[in-house]
Design goal:
- The chain has 235 residues and is of the alpha/beta class.
- It folds into two domains: 136 residues, TPP-binding domain (Rossmann fold), CATH 3.40.50.1220; 85 residues, 2-Layer Sandwich (SIR2/SIRT2 'Small Domain'), CATH 3.30.1600.10.
- It contains nine helices and nine strands.
- It has a six-stranded parallel sheet with strand order 3-2-1-7-8-9, with helices on both faces. The protein has a three-stranded antiparallel sheet with strand order 5-4-6, covered by helices on one side.
- Helix 7 links the parallel strand 2 and strand 3.
- Helix 6 packs parallel to helix 9.
- The radius of gyration is 18 Å and the shape is elongated.
- The N and C termini lie close together (8 Å).
């Protein structure tokens, strides 16, 4: 069974109504990164940071996977599919994808602010209990914080993601500017002889010297076209 590895970014979820961060009018224009997406910002004003992510979580709970997510999940009927996402939403899983690596954390989880990666203190949030409040404690007694990889923090899942890309028979890049490292560097782990597809309605500069098949469409229309292109590969 052929192995498709997908690198997804904010454009994958935009059609579901999830606000992007870097595009014009994106969240980083309204909320300075250093205030809401750094350990220092959390230390200075934890209440503001918790409120920012509570708002993101509330928005997430009001949307659903789009057709692009659903088509991607459906490819598992004919392929082994691994998704490496920069998104912190769970729309890939909600659509049915079963092998998803979250590079930048997960909005629907909370963790210790003393040791965010300690698995003993990572907790699942739910539609009924989705807010993190000042004073909510992790199992180690520290303030609960969003399970998000902030700027300046290491990306623990990057090695596992690189391993998936190195095993790929087909690489798909969808909805990402490829400007954020270390995620952008994952392309260099792909075997030299595999096809690479890039789905994005906007022009994306790819810093690799290899052929790339561009599909200049959004997530849903782009995934529909990709499915047709892959139809003969599963045999």
């Amino acid at each position: 069974m052929k192995h498709i590895v997908v690198l997804s970014g904010a454009g994958m979820s935009a059609e579901s109504g999830i606000s992007t961060f870097r595009d014009a009018g994106g969240l980083w224009e309204k909320y300075p990164v250093e205030q809401v997406a750094t350990p220092e910002g959390f230390a200075r004003d934890p209440e503001r940071v918790l409120r920012f992510y509570n708002e993101r979580r509330k928005q997430l709970l009001s949307v659903a996977p789009n057709r692009g997510h659903q088509i991607l999940a459906g490819l598992e009927a004919d392929f082994r599919v691994s998704v490496v996402t920069q998104n912190v939403d769970n729309l890939h899983q909600w659509a049915g994808s079963t092998d998803v690596i979250h590079l930048h954390g997960e909005l629907m989880k909370a963790c210790s602010s003393r040791d965010p990666q300690d698995p003993r203190y990572i907790v699942e949030l739910s539609a009924e209990h989705w807010e993190i409040r000042l004073g909510d404690q992790a199992g180690d007694g520290s303030q609960l914080r969003p399970f998000i990889v902030w700027f300046g923090e290491s990306v623990p899942e990057i090695e596992r993601a690189a391993g998936r890309v190195a095993q790929a028979d087909v690489l798909v890049v969808i909805g990402t500017s490829l400007n954020v490292y270390p995620a952008a560097g994952l392309l260099h782990y792909a075997p030299a002889d595999i096809p690479v597809y890039l789905i994005d309605p906007n022009e994306v500069q790819v810093a690799v010297s290899r052929p790339v098949h561009y599909i200049r469409k959004g997530a849903s229309a782009g995934m529909a076209e990709l499915k047709e292109l892959l139809s003969g590969l599963s045999e």
